[in-house]
């Protein structure tokens, strides 16, 4: 206990054993190590905790946000103008790293952290990866991949020839006009023979088709395959003997044109039995709903096809009749009878040959 009037050094009595000694007058030496700096007379005293001696760099955060926004705009422009190959190029990746470093510096700069955070968020949302992915998704949805192609790809996409095919051999083959003339002559002779031998009449033929051939570089070549007008009899042909007689008459015409007898695509051994059943109704020709034959000139890429549709041999589920009825509803073609048409290899119109040669010169 403290006894009033006692000396300061003797204030503690027996019951105060273990208590720390009272500091000497004026306190211990060095107890006040840090003192507030002396201000000149009349200077305002800064509030406690003031950062007046640490100037804020808000401008750096604003600059980082502006740089990030400009970078995003550049990404979009590059994607639409230069394509993905430019977007993923070294220059754009280096630019992205530079922008990111600047944004991170702003993020750790006092006074600029708020703006720097916004700039960082913008960079995370829109960067090379996200903009490129968005462009790819857009192309997949619209089917337009122009922005994803390089200039070299776009150049070869317009190649008029066919990859790995010598243009001199392609352009040196029969023209479309020559193929058409040969097809018209052969089909005309076959129709005349069948009309003479069996009294067939013929429907209005289906239009010819020109199917473009891909050039192997992502585009279409100037060449196409030609499918002639498709002729069909108005009369049906039933029974193996009648169908065989029809094919014999056709073979006689084909032989006159220098071809061998027509080869059957429906005979066992040419294809697997299950395939024959699927395509023709049975693996046995005498039970097939469709007979199909061809004769060709291999060197000229010229093939005559003949089909005989006989629905009296339809399968139990009637699928061939149903297919023919559906096709009849769309094309007006008779349900059954003899079908004739020609298919050729790659060809080009004579009117396009000069323009083809001129364009081809750009690729040599």
TrEMBL record:
Transmembrane intervals: 58-81, 87-108, 120-141
Biased composition (Pro residues): 38-47
Highest taxon listed in the record's lineage: Bacteria
Organism whose genome encodes this protein: Microbacterium mitrae
Official protein name in the record: Uncharacterized protein
Region annotation Disordered: where it falls in the sequence: 1-53
Keyword annotations from UniProtKB, A to Z: Membrane, Transmembrane, Transmembrane helix
């Amino acid at each position: 206990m403290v006894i009033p009037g006692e000396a300061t050094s003797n204030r503690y009595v027996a019951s105060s054993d273990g208590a720390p000694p009272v500091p000497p007058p004026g306190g211990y030496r060095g107890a006040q190590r840090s003192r507030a700096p002396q201000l000149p007379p009349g200077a305002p005293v800064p509030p406690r905790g003031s950062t007046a001696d640490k100037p804020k760099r808000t401008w750096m955060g604003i600059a980082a946000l502006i740089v990030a926004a400009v970078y995003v705009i550049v990404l979009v422009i590059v994607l639409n103008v230069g394509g993905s190959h430019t977007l993923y190029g070294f220059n754009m990746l280096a630019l992205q790293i530079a922008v990111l470093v600047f944004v991170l510096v702003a993020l750790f700069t006092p006074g600029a952290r708020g703006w720097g955070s916004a700039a960082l968020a913008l960079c995370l949302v829109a960067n090379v990866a996200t903009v490129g992915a968005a462009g790819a998704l857009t192309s997949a949805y619209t089917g337009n991949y122009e922005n994803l192609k390089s200039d070299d790809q776009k150049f070869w996409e317009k190649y008029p020839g066919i990859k790995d095919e010598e243009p001199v051999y392609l352009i040196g083959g029969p023209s479309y006009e020559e193929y058409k003339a040969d097809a018209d002559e052969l089909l005309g002779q076959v129709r005349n023979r069948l009309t003479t031998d069996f009294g067939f009449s013929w429907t209005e033929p289906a239009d010819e088709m020109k199917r473009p051939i891909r050039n192997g570089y992502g585009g279409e070549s100037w060449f196409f395959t030609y499918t002639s007008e498709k002729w069909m009899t108005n009369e049906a042909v039933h029974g193996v003997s009648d169908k065989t007689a029809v094919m014999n008459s056709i073979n006689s015409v084909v032989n006159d044109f220098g071809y061998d007898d027509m080869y059957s695509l429906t005979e066992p051994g040419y294809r697997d039995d299950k395939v024959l059943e699927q395509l023709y109704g049975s693996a046995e020709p005498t039970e097939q709903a469709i007979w199909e034959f061809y004769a060709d000139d291999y060197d000229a890429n010229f093939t005559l096809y003949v089909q005989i549709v006989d629905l009296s041999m339809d399968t139990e589920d009637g699928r061939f009749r149903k297919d023919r009825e559906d096709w009849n509803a769309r094309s007006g073609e008779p349900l059954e009878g003899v079908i004739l048409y020609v298919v050729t290899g790659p060809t080009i119109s004579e009117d396009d040959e000069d323009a083809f040669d001129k364009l081809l010169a750009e690729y040599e």
